[in-house]
Amino acid sequence: MVEKHIKSLLYEHDCVIIPDFGGLITRYVPARINSTKHTLSPPSKKIAFNEKLVLNDGLLISTIAHHNRISKEEAQQRVAAFVHQAKNNLQAQNRFELSDIGIFRYNPERRLVFEHTETDNMLEDSFGLPEISARPVRKSEEPAVLRTLIKERQKELEEEKQPLRRRIKRAYNVAAGLALVGLCASAVYFLSLQADYNLSSLNPVFFLKSTEHTAREIDEQEFFAAEMAGVEAEQSTQESPETASADAEGMTLSNEPESAVAEPGDVVVEEPAPAAEVEEAAPAHIIYTTDGRSYIISGGYARLENAEQYRSALLEQGHKEVFILLPQPGSRLFRVSLADFDTADEAQNALNTYRKQFGETLWVLNN
User: Fold this and answer.
1) 46 by DSSP, 3-state: which?
2) pLDDT in tens, 329-347
3) Which residues form the SPOR domain (predicted)?
4) Are 324 and 286 in contact (CB under 8 A)?
């Protein structure tokens, strides 16, 4: 408690006497430079101690009595107790510390020595001033430092002059990106609405057979031949009612071997024709085998019905030789041909003529 009042009095007074102990004296210390630490310290107060100033001037006792609202006798008793404790510590430990003020010790001659602890600046005029650290500047480094500062300042000025232009550029980039994303999404959406679209403009190399899918590809030519065989067989069974009734009256099944000669009036049931004969009965405009000819392709379709519709439209326009080629190995497209030639050179020579009428998407397929 007494230490607190001693410290507050040192802020306002140049001398504070502790009765029967000694006096603390302050003196002004100007600003100083520490060349080793490269620091600049503000003005302050330095505290010294004089053990001969033991006469009570009443400053410390009056201050304690006033702030604690007690009598001067009680305040004097507190100061006396504080001095007694300080002397006991010095006798036992040879050391007594006043918080934030300093440390008391006995020297070899048994004289009391005070060491000031510079924790707080007790000069009111320097209140709030910190210690400044400064790094020495070499002459050889000054041009580089100045150039760096000038460049940074010029950059700041340029940024201040062109804030609007930068914002406009950033907004333009964002708008362009959003527009591009919107166009891509719209294109994918409209393509998804078209169940069947012409793929003739695509590169034919894309539809070549992939080596890694060879084992899984289905032979679509054989599938189509089998399908045509089933259609012909079904058409052969759908006869008129009159013919069916006439055949039913005179029909007899023969259980004899194939080598037996059929008698007059007997009806021999023929076995189904081989697959080769059925393939010959397929429509003439459908090319389902590799014939070595070169075709000018106008379009490719995922379904045979769509290819047939496109062929019918071409026939209505007056084009006679329109063929449909079954999907080749590695592809699932039914291609529509406008013309066919013996060699690839003849097809290439006639390609420009057909492109003038049907567009630049035509290409030559070597079958």
Assistant:
1) strand
2) 878 888 999 888 989 899 8
3) 288-367
4) yes
Query: What is residue 287's three-state secondary structure?
Result: strand
CA angle 285, 288, 289 (to 5 degrees): 120
Rounded to an integer, what distance in angstroms lies between the CA atom of residue 323 and that of residue 306?
13
Residue indicated by tokens 């150039």: 147
* Residue given tokens 């430079």 in the structure block: 33
Sequence-distant (6+) residues with CB within 8 A of 232 are 278, 281
Residue with tokens 């013919």: 243
pLDDT of 34 above 70: yes
Name the nearest CA neighbour of 363 among 342, 343, 335. Answer: 335
Q: Which residues of 132-148 are buried (b: 16+ CB within 10 A; e: fewer)?
A: eeeeeeeeeeeeeeeee
Structure tokens of 161?
């002059």
- Predicted model pTM: 0.36
Residue 225 confidence (pLDDT) above 60: no
Listed by start position, the domains of the chain span 2-133, 204-232+274-366
DSSP H stretches of helix in the chain = 2-12, 59-68, 72-93, 142-161, 163-193, 220-237, 241-250, 275-280, 304-316, 344-358
Provide the CATH topology of domain 204-232+274-366. Answer: Alpha-Beta Plaits (3.30.70)
**In degrees, to the nearest 5, what angle opens at C-alpha 275 toward C-alphas 273 and 310?**
115
Tokens standing for 146? 């100045």
Separation CA 359–CA 124 (nearest Å): 97
